[in-house]
Amino acid sequence: LTPPRHRPVDSRIYPRFAGVRTFMRLPHLRDLEGLDAAAVGIPFDTATSFRPGARFGPEAVRSASALLRPYHPAFGVDVLASISVADYGDLPVAPGDTVGTYRRIEEGLAPLVDAGVFPLVIGGDHSITLAELRALAVRHGPMALVHLDAHTDTWDEYFDQRYFHGTTFKRAAEEGLVEPAASVQAGMRGSLFGASDLEDARALGFEVIPSEQLRALGPDAYARTVRARVGDRPAFLSFDIDFLDPAFAPGTGTPEVAGFSTAEAVALLRSLRGIRLVGCDVVEVAPPYDGPGQPTATAAANVALDLLALRALSK
Ligand SMILES: [Mn+2]
């Protein structure tokens, strides 16, 4: 095993409050040589239906990630010793122009996809995931979607806009970027526009597990369901931070009560060990609404580390 080319700043020498903020204190690099994975910020939030602010998500998650250590005790793996990771910085975006931002994201991620560098994207509102999927589908074809969110994001349009943060997975299914029959959406809850909202997602082919059912299943049965659907396919995991209850993650665009604790979310993620992740994101962190001590950004940073760990284990 060759040691990874890149390592984080040693927090036993330079304390965590020192230095420039990058994801997990990794080097900020645009050179992809020798990289297995890269944290990529996409600070776009003008496709939101309620509270804006997720444009500041990457900055807040990077700051919270300064506390993270590379060894993952639950998996028994030094994540940053088993894969070489850097912070690629933020992609350019066009505020107010979702389609223009999609073009920039697709162009921005293409070099990573070409080089086989695993993208860990930090959003940004959920609209950005469509462009991530487009970039990855060029290499992987239709992917299995593992989606944790309070919402299915399979509405057809908002305000005459087909590209919005609540339409992402309908578009992804229509464009053939994901394979709905291999996909699972879980955590859905809250008020809806109508009884058909969840059924519309199922009609697209997704398996939809509402929050009550997910809580009843627990991590092991959830993981069995996911594995049965996903199989060996390349998978993309999208984690909307509003999967968490607003008590744990108030800093988000469209909070829904009766959600999951951070501990429950972590257990669900860790149950997915072995799935073949080819990309992932953590989206909808809106720091202007975060609570004292930044619980939302802290949760998102830890989710991001768990996603990196899942990737490291599937290599
Ligand atoms: Mn959501």
* Percentage of residues in helical conformation: 25-40%
Tell me, rounded to a whole number, the average pLDDT: 97
The best one-word shape is globular
* Helix-strand sequence: EHEEHEHEHEHEHEHEHEH
| Secondary structure category | alpha/beta
* Beta-strand segment tally: 10
Radius of gyration over C-alpha positions, nearest whole angstrom = 18 Å
Which stretches are poorly predicted, pLDDT < 50 over at least 5 residues? Answer: none
Oligomer: single chain
| Tally of helical segments | 9
Termini separation (Å)?
A: 13 Å
The distinct bound ligands, ions and cofactors come out as:
manganese (II) ion
Strand order of the largest sheet: 4-1-5-10-9-6-7-8
Which percent band covers the strand fraction? 15-25%
Major sheet attributes? 8 strands, parallel
Strand-helix topology:
Layout: E1 37-42, H1 57-64, E2 71-72, E3 77-78, H2 79-82, E4 85-90, H3 98-115, E5 118-123, H4 128-140, E6 144-148, H5 168-174, E7 184-188, H6 196-203, E8 207-210, H7 211-230, E9 235-240, H8 262-270, E10 277-283, H9 295-314
Parallel strand pairs: 1-4, 1-5, 5-10, 6-7, 6-9, 7-8, 9-10
Antiparallel strand pairs: 2-3
Manganese (II) ion binds at residues 149-151, 240, 242, 254, 284.
